Request: fold
Amino acid sequence: MVTTGFGRHKIRLISTLSGASLLCPGDSLVLSSSFLTGNQWFRNGVAIAAPKGTAQVFAARDSGNYVVSFTSPEGCSSLSSAQRLDFRILPAQPLIT
Reply:
């Protein structure tokens, strides 16, 4: 869990691994912001499109650095620390001979 913020607005990026600890193609890592609304998710510095990119919970399925930004109703913003996510490459398909 990563916490950062200002004043009364603290943002926490919470990750919950879905399934086994080894991330393989098809697996996902569930990332959750500590705020219900006002979120914007980023992967490698690029905003993820709404509605998935603005939800409280985001299921990451690609390798990269993920952060979430929160903007308060007053217009102030806070950014979480990055969470690195790496997926393994599938091994070659075995052949039956």
The mean pLDDT is 81. Strands lie at 2-6, 9-18, 28-33, 39-43, 46-47, 57-60, 64-71, 77-79, 83-85. The chain has no helices and nine strands. The two ends are 48 Å apart (CA to CA).
